[in-house]
Structures are given as C-alpha cells and as structure tokens.
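Structure in, sequence out. Go:
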C-alpha cells in the first residue's frame, strides 16, 4: 500500500489511548459496531501517513475494577476482570482494522497464547517498523494500576513521541463542561499544573510517569471527524500537557 511520507506528519510514532467508552458509542456499554468502525478508519488514516501507531485499550464499556470493588468484588479480582475486558476490546479493534486492510497485532500483559502475543517490547517495535498497528491489552498486567498508567508505561517503553488520549470532549477543562457551561478549556498545561489542579483526565501515577520521562500528552475529542489526523499533523487540537 502506498503511504504518504512520515515527514509530513509531526509525529513518527504515537500511542493512542482509547477508552472502552469510545467503543461503546452512544449505547454507553458494550461494543458499538459503528463506533468501532469509525475508530478503525481514523487509525488507518494516520497509519497511511506513514505514522507508526500503538493503541492501549481501556475496558470500561464492559467492566471497571473500581466499580466492581464498590459493588463487593475483591479489588484485585475486579482489576483482573477489567484487564480481561480490555483484551476483548483489543480483539474487536483488531478485527475492525483488519477488515480495513490494516495489518494488526495484539499483545497482552496477561499471557494467553491462543488469542494474542505476550507483550515483548522488541517484538512490538519490530511490528511497528513493518507498518503494523500494535494494540496492547491487559493494562500493565497488575492490579491497582489503571490503563492510563499502562499507556504511560508502554509509550516510554516503545519510544513513542507522544500520548494521544482520546476522549468525548475537546481537551482538558477546569470543570466538567457537560455540567458547567462556563467551564474553561486549557490549550496547554504543565504536568505539575495538571497534578496540582487535580484534573481528572489521567491518574496521578500516569501523569508522574510522563513528567519524569518528558512524555507529552495531548487530550482531544476523537469523535470529531478527522481529529486524530489533525493532531498527528500538528494542528492545535485539544490540550497539550508537557514540560
């Protein structure tokens, strides 16, 4: 497949953090086929620019460990259940991408040879060099760590240029814009500001890991048409969190 040279894009290698809710679409739960297809098309669009793409999946559309623990499920058990949910989403996205003729590999932090490769950093990098999209499921493989932390960890491990956190809103606000019409959107924040203001976009562990390793984060609205492409091309979309 002919691709546009990567020099035209601002970033050569990106890590896209996709929440489970992004796959749920308007249904609020489960996997919406239209939303899944849209995500696959957007990823294909940037892959065709020559950009190397890694995806870290959430699982909140199926099961959340924290919500499970509040309902009486033991916390570690609930977190493992949530990790399995992310793998379901990873396999669904892989199927959608391959139907779009995008070669894809799923790697998991929990070993399950029948459905996916185990996470091996060198193998993941090699897949990227061969223009394959790599999807990481299973979080970090450990309870008490979010998929945001998994995204920060994997981005640093595979040498990504940036973490792109896909959300339903167009950046980071000082309060919930869905509840407060006067909420102020930030175009740029430092890691310390995000931590001090307790902005609930990524958890403190993920922010700290990015801060320690100077990994920029862009929070943007994935549901606007071609927004992922715009971010990759360097347009001022969403909120940039950096030094």
């Amino acid at each position: 497949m002919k691709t546009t040279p990567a020099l035209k894009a601002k970033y050569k290698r990106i890590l896209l953090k996709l929440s489970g809710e992004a796959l749920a679409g308007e249904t609020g739960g489960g996997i919406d086929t239209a939303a899944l297809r849209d995500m696959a098309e957007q990823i294909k669009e940037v892959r065709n620019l020559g950009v190397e793409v890694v995806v870290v999946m959430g699982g909140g559309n199926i099961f959340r460990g924290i919500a499970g623990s509040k309902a009486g499920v033991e916390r570690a058990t609930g977190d493992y259940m949530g990790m399995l949910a992310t793998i379901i989403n990873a396999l669904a996205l892989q199927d959608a991408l391959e139907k779009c003729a995008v070669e894809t590999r799923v790697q998991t932090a929990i070993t399950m040879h029948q459905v996916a490769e185990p996470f091996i950093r060198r193998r993941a990098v090699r897949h990227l060099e061969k223009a394959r999209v790599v999807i990481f499921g299973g979080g970090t493989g450990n309870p008490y760590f979010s998929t945001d932390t998994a995204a920060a960890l994997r981005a640093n491990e595979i040498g990504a240029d940036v973490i792109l956190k896909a959300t339903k809103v167009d950046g980071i606000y000082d309060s919930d814009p869905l509840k407060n019409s006067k909420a102020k959107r930030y175009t740029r924040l430092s890691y310390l500001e995000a931590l001090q203001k307790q902005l609930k976009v990524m958890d403190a562990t993920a922010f700290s890991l990015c801060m320690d390793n100077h990994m920029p984060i862009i929070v943007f609205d994935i549901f606007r048409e071609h927004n992922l492409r715009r971010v990759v091309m360097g347009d001022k979309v969403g909120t940039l969190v950096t030094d």
